[in-house]
Specification:
Blueprint (H helix, E strand, L loop, with lengths): L4 E6 L6 H12 L2 E3 L2 E3 L6 H8 L5 E3 L3 E3 L5 H8 L17 E4 L14 H8 L3 E6 L4 H14 L4 E7 L4 H11 L3 E5 L7 H14 L3
Parallel strand pairs: 1-6, 1-7, 2-4, 2-6, 3-5, 7-8, 8-9
Helix pairs in contact: 1-2, 1-7, 5-6
Length: about 210
């Protein structure tokens, strides 16, 4: 069976990217990789994914683990580390692979490179996580345009939260980017919630 490999990015911070990553990784029974972790090293995104998924999801070690919850380039400067694009090579695996970015696409890795530059090198289709708030249309369209301008394939959009027809229809009609699924807001994100949403995603057969 052909391997499926995807990148996940959010239109900003706190849009539900890690929860969606858990759901997609579980649906694909994939290897999960967070290349750069900034801050929360004792409760990293890798730790969260490990708690929310079962043994079919394998957690790969981060390439960079930075102590401060800041932009990678700023946290790296405090830690005395220089992040290099050349060091962010894709992990070798014969399984499906899901890679979660850090923040949005324009997050600086170092003084010259942005996260989107790594996305371009990896050359994998991107799943965009969008959550409705004032300004989310702008942020979603800018994320899509940035990827398209660099020739990076977009697998589709995941909307988090209650349906917002006016916002969603505009984004989908304006961009022609596929709609993959909607993830509801959970009062508490648990492994059961992730399993339930992963089952729905598998039934949709959109990945």
């Amino acid at each position: 069976m052909e391997q499926k490999k995807y990148l996940i990015t959010g239109i900003g911070t706190d849009v539900g990217k890690t929860v969606v990553s858990a759901i997609v990784a579980q649906a694909l029974e994939a290897d999960y990789w967070k290349p750069i972790q900034s801050g929360e090293l004792e409760n990293s995104d890798s730790h969260k994914i490990n708690r929310l998924t079962d043994e079919n999801v394998h957690i790969l070690p981060e390439r960079y683990r930075l102590t401060e919850p800041m932009s990678p380039h700023a946290s790296a400067a405090i830690d005395g580390v220089e992040l290099q694009l050349s060091e962010l090579t894709l992990p070798k695996t014969n399984r499906n692979l899901l890679i979660e970015g850090a923040g949005g696409l324009m997050v600086p890795i170092n003084e010259t490179d942005l996260l989107i530059d790594a996305f371009k090198i990896w050359n994998l289709p991107v799943i965009i996580v969008s959550r409705h708030y004032v300004g989310s249309i702008n942020h979603t369209l800018m994320t899509i345009e940035a990827l398209q301008n660099r020739g990076i394939a977009i697998k589709g959009l995941v909307f988090v939260g209650d349906e917002n027809p006016a916002t969603e229809s505009f984004i989908l009609n304006h961009t022609n980017v596929p709609f993959l699924m909607r993830i509801p807001i959970a009062r508490e994100v648990t492994a059961d919630f992730v399993q339930e949403q992963a089952s729905k995603l598998k039934e949709l057969n959109c990945l």
